[in-house]
Structures are given as C-alpha cells and as structure tokens.
Amino acid sequence: MKRIVLLLLSTIAFYSAMCQDISGKWKGVVRVKKTKFNVVFRFVKTPNGYITTLDSPDYGAKGYPINSVKVNHGQLEMAMSIVRIEYSGKILSNAIHGSLAFNGRHYPMWLTRVTDPVPDTKVKPAKPAYSFYTENVTFINPKSKILLAGTLTLPKKTGNFPIVVLVSGYGPDDRDAEKYLHKPFQVLAEYLTMNGIGVLRYDDRGVGQSKGEFRTATTEDFKTDVESAMEYLKKRPEVDKKKMSLIGQGEGGLIAAMIVSKSNDIKCIAMLGAPGMRGDNLMIHKARTIAAASGASEEDVVKINKIYSKTFRIITDSLETRVMKEEVTDFLNMSFKKIPLSNGKPKGMSFDQYVDTKVDELTNPWMLQYIKIDPAAYFETVKCPVLVLHGEKDLEVPTELNTLAIKNAFNKAQNNEVTIKVLPKLNHLFQECKTGLPDEYPSITEIISTSALDELSEWFNNQMAK
Asked: pLDDT tens across 207-256, in order?
C-alpha cells in the first residue's frame, strides 16, 4: 500500500470539467489492514475548472498537482492515468464518500472538508516523496565562459543510468520551463526519472542561477550550452555514456537535431513541437495562422502575410543594422495602420510602443540568425533514432506544414528510425485545448498531456533497451 501512496504523489498535469464547487481543502485516510496513510487534497476554482493538488503529511510532500478531476451531478471523479489510479466519490455537504481503485482493488477513502483557508493558490510542486536522487549542479560553457546551473535527477544516488538533457524552446526559460504557474520540465524530468532515466534540466543563460546574457544570445549560443551540459554529464560516473539523449521543445528540438547531426555521442532525440521550416517562413506562417484562428478576416490574413513576408525580405537584404531597423520601423508603422483590429496590439500599449516592440522582436540577434536557419539542412544528416511529437492544434509551429517538412527531410536522410506522431487536441505546450491560440495558455490548467508523456516514456524505454 505504501507504493500506492507514493504513486499518488507522482501524478502530474491536469484538466477538469466543473459542475459543482468543491473549492478548499479536504482530508482523507487510506487504510490497508493495520496501516493507514493520510492525504490532503486542495481544490482551487478557476474559470476553466480546478487546479487540484495533493499533500501527504506522512511523507512530507506538499502541493503536488493531480492529473484529472471531474465534478458532475454530485459525483467526484479523479483519474490518474499515468499510474492507472482512480478515485470516485459522492459529494455531500462536508464530506465525499468514495473509494480508491488501483491494480484491480478498491480501498475505501472518505474525504472530509477542512475549514481552515488555503493560503496560496499557486501550484508549486514540492520535493517529491518518492525515492529518487536530486542534486543541484553547475557546469561551465567554455566557449562563452559562463556558468550554467540546473537540477540533475537520477533513479538512485549511485548506479549507472541512461540520461536525457531537456532543451527549452523560444524565450527565456528557467530549468522547469515555468509558464502560467506550471512547471512542465519538472514534471517531465520527474516522470522520466521514475521510469529509470536520469534527467538534467537547467536555467537558460541569464535566467535563474545561470550567468550570461540571454538578450544577445542566438540559437548557436544555446546549442553550445547544450553541448556543455553533455560534456559535464560525461564526467559523471552515474551516467551511462552510451545512452545519452536529448529532448527539445520547440526551438530546443531544432537544437537537438543540430547537435546530433554532427555528433555520434547521442543515442536518440525527441523533438516536441519542433520547426521543420526555415525560420523566416515559419514566422510568416505563424503570424498568418494565429491571425486566422483569432478571427481576422481573410483580407486581413492576406495583409498580415504580405507584411511579414516584406519585413523579412527587408531584414535579409539589409547590410547595415541601423538602416535595417529604420526601414523595418517605417514599414511596420505604415502597414499595421491598415489592420488595426488584427495586429495583436495588447491593451494599454500605444501604437508607437507596439511598433517599437515588434521591431525589437524582429531585429534582435536571435531573430537575425534564426530566420536564416533551415532545419532540413540538419535533419537530412541525422542517423540516430528520432521521435517527433506535434500537437494537432499547435499554431506557433503550424502542425501540417512543419511535420510534412520534417518528414521530407528525414526521408532524404534515409533514416528509418524516425517516428512522427500528431497528438489530437494539443497545443504547442502539449496541453489539451480548444483553439491552440497563445492567448488561451494562461487559462489552461493542464501542465502537459499524459498522452505526450506516455508516448515519450514508451519510446525512450524501447530505445534504452536496445
């Protein structure tokens, strides 16, 4: 039974449909023979459902997210799909009478409402109660001469284990890739470690405890950070040097391919929502796709396509940065005025401020390099096994065009060990969603879909067994 409680604490991600308010804290006890285990569930009401967390006072774990919660017609259902645990109970005024199902057995578990207030509604997964080894580490990027800081998780403190490095996507990310109160990289790292695979995740340069400057860094710079992480791991006795792999989200997937195209040290890579199109073409299609999904008219979508196409032509044709920025500023000033309802200007920001922001985004060092990168040039030389996962509703890296480009490139590589899957209903962050629009991200309570986690776990377990 101890294992059941530990597995309860390992659940992650969450999506709920809410019909009855059960906000607050609920306590329960699971009993098996003469042993009992105390649990505390905290339900926080949001416009789209509940953010639900689990505490286990017996194991010192607090605030760990639950996978799925549904409240319908006085019935509470919690399905923990990763570890195949379910809870079903009838909601009364101050109690929930139900049972926990695991491995074909049912254990009575009644929950009672606790009246003391829940002080913090932010989901902050605590140190897990299950027994794997966690260590805060630092390593040096010798090319940039900066220190990078991260977290290494291993199935045990001693041994020799397969290892995966998590590579974040566009924008400054900490080691957990925290966005909108969620920590998907922490969830992914702990899930893989529970399944026997060590994981290193780290703060991007200039973020968290890592040194350096993020604002001026390029894709090539971020690639050297990943290479430095791999070199660090080679010095760790716990790492199986023949089973070192990469998982990259978005741009991180491209970086993983860039590294493995020139290295024989990597056993396999997984690319999550990775681009398959050249950078400038990706940005053009991204702007057009998001505009259309946001309700822009066909006429405005065509205008947006022309605006970004012309902007990138200005950038790629310019020889001098100052002149380029002036030309882009003048062009966007003129162009955005023609699509006032479709240019994405945030509320409270003046038009001039918005144009300045877009100019900075489109002409910073990262963008100037990224728009000229053609992923196919790297994919076509990759020989190791590759898993490509894409969300069906990904609008940031439009699914159909990019998965087709990736497939064609790997076909040219004659790589027969490439698996490409499009996961239904998921967005760029691999959350179940309605529209896929970035504006929807903050309201989604799921951290990362269990369908994505299951695909990753099964594929990596198969690869590591070879």
From this structure: 999 999 998 999 999 999 999 999 999 999 999 999 999 999 999 999 99
Q: Is 175 helix (H, G, I), strand (E, B) or coil?
A: coil
- Predicted pLDDT of residue 120: 43
Rounded Cα–Cα distance for residues 78 and 99 (Å)? 11
**Which of the pair, 258 or 129, is modelled with greater confidence?**
258
Measure the CA–CA gap between 449 and 454, rounded to whole angstroms: 9
Which residue in 348, 311, 308 sits closest to 329, CA to CA?
Answer: 311
pLDDT digits (tens, 9 = 90+) for 182-207: 889 998 998 899 889 999 999 999 99
> Chain centroid to CA 249: how far?
7
Q: In what order do the strands lie in the sheet with 198-202?
A: 133-141, 146-154, 198-202, 161-167, 239-249, 268-272, 386-391, 418-423
Where would I find the H helices in 135-265?
184-194, 219-234, 251-260
- Structure tokens, 403: 């998965």
3-state secondary structure of 379: helix
Alpha-carbon distance of 355 to 340, in angstroms, equals 12
Please list the alpha-helical segments (H only) found in 9-78: none
| The two three-digit tokens of residue 368, written as one number | 């100037």
Q: Cα 416–422–424 angle (5° rounding)?
A: 155
| pLDDT tier, 80 (very low <50, low <70, confident <90, very high otherwise) | low
Query: Nearest-CA neighbor of 307 among 294, 291, 293?
Result: 291
CB-CB neighbours of 350 under 10 Å = 9
Task: Count Cβ atoms below 10 Å from residue 119 Cβ, excluding itself.
Answer: 5
Give residue for tokens 């962050």.
Answer: 429
CA–CA separation, 334 and 312 (whole Å) = 16
pLDDT digit string (tens) for 5-19? 333 333 322 223 334
Per-position b or e across 151-187, b if 16+ CB within 10 A of its CB = bbbbbeeeeebbbbbbbbbbeebbbbbeeeebbbbbb
The residues near 143 (Cβ < 8 Å, ≥ 6 apart) are 224, 228
Bridge-based pairing of strands 49-56 and 133-141 is: unpaired
Strand ranges across the sheet with 95-102: 15-18, 68-72, 75-80, 85-91, 95-102, 105-114, 24-32, 35-46, 49-56, 61-65
Geometric angle at alpha carbon 87, from 86 and 91, rounded to 5° = 155
Q: Which helix (H) or strand (E) holds 154?
A: strand 146-154
CB atoms within 10 A of CB 434: 12
Q: Could you count the other beta carbons within 10 Å of the beta carbon of residue 23?
A: 14
- pLDDT of the residue at 268: 96
